[in-house]
Structures are given as C-alpha cells and as structure tokens.
Design goal:
It is built from three helices and twelve strands; from the N terminus they run αααββββββββββββ. The protein is mostly beta strands. The longest helix has 12 residues. It is elongated. The protein starts with a helix and ends in an 8-residue tail after the last strand.
Length: 225
C-alpha cells in the first residue's frame, strides 16, 4: 500500500507543465510579455531602412504658384534722349499755313546723326534771333497743341515739329490784325527738351510774324505739311 502511494506521487511530480504553471522567471513566460526591442518600435522615422526614395521631403508634393512675370522679367533697356550734338536740324516754310504775306508756318526737321538709336519727345521752344547771335534772342510765347509721345530715332531717322505763327497781312511792311508792328527775324532758335538748341534760318528769306507768338506741335515721326 505504501509502495503504491510512492509511485503515485512520483508520477504526479513528472506531469508536464507542473513546474511551468507556477514559475514567473521561466523563459517562456518572458517571451509572452510586451517587447521593448527597437525592431518593434512604432516610429519608422528612427529606422535606418525608412529613408529610402519613396519618402519625399516635406512640401515637395505641394503645387507651387507660378512666378510673376513682373518679378522675373528683365527690365527693358531705356533708350537715351538724343543729345543736341546728335541731331541735325533744318527749317523750311510749311505748305499749309495761314493766309497772309508773312512766314505763316515753318517745319523743323531733326535727323539723328549719331551711330546709336536715341529718343526725342515733347514740345519745342522758339525764339527769334539775329544772325550769329543766338544768345541775343527774343523768346516767343508758344502754345502747345496735340498730344506728345516718345519718338525713337534709329541712326539716320527723322522727326519733325511744326510752328505756326500769327500771320502778317498786307503788302510792303504789312500790318498785324492785333495792331502790333510786324517783326522779322533772320534766324529762329528752336530747342527740344534735352535735345539742345538749334539756330536755323529759312532758305527763302527772313521769318516775319506778328505778336511774337507761335503754336507748336510735339515732335512727331509723321512728316507734317
């Protein structure tokens, strides 16, 4: 009877799992718990294998707004104003002029004599003067007419202005409708803004006008008549 009990106890001690059920330090118990290894980390950015070509830098996938043309465009080179020495001026009596016996109207033609393009713009001033004495002149009161715009002159190109005077009436010395005495000038000093002053004479006589006034057009690329 005692032998049977001892055998029974020996068999119970050898049952599988008897010791594992009560052990807290067994290897199998440790493996079943939560892991803290770097392989199980939930943050892929810390993994050396997470920096491949499939990862795009932040912002690369965001559409970029088009660059404004006003920012990227190269500013146009400004054409210099024609200097006085670059222009050759010539004056002649206009075909279309007020009726009378004086000059009536004159056209001044400017030619770009330089080797580079330049620009002219604006209304001329005018002053009557004696031959060889441009500094001893009598300025005319000018009245601008029409609009003004920049005229680009290539080498050899021309531009014009027209000056219309108060016409002298009658024969001989003539007379002015205003009652003033007609005035004659051997030359006329015509100047453009920043384009120098040019002393000019008519090929067919002196300039005769009344009241020392003139109506002037802006410089233009269209030849007036």
């Amino acid at each position: 009877m005692a032998t049977m009990s001892a055998a029974t106890l020996l068999m119970t001690a050898c049952q599988p799992g008897a010791d594992a059920a009560g052990s807290s330090s067994s290897p199998s118990g440790k493996a079943a718990g939560p892991t803290t290894s770097s392989a199980g980390s939930p943050t892929p950015a810390t993994s050396s294998g997470g920096t491949g070509a499939s990862a795009e830098p932040a912002g690369d996938s965001t559409p970029k707004a088009p660059v404004s043309a006003s920012v990227t465009a190269t500013p146009a080179t400004k054409t210099k104003t024609c200097a006085g020495e670059s222009l050759k001026a010539f004056m002649y009596q206009a075909d279309v002029r007020p009726k009378g016996t004086g000059t009536g109207a004159a056209i001044v033609e400017f030619t770009n004599m330089s080797g580079a393009s330049c620009a002219v713009q604006g209304y001329p001033t005018a002053a009557g003067a004696a031959n060889g004495s441009p500094e001893k002149n009598h300025p005319l009161a000018v009245t601008p007419t029409g609009s003004t715009s920049k005229v680009l002159l290539a080498p050899g190109a021309k531009a014009w202005v027209k000056l219309t005077f108060v016409q002298v009436q009658g024969e001989g010395d003539g007379y002015c409708v205003s009652g003033a005495t007609p005035v004659t000038y051997p030359t006329l000093v015509v100047a453009l803004p920043s384009g120098g002053a040019h002393q000019l004479a008519l090929e067919d006589g002196v300039l005769a006008e009344c009241d020392n006034t003139a109506t002037v057009t802006a410089v233009t690329a269209t030849k007036p008549s």
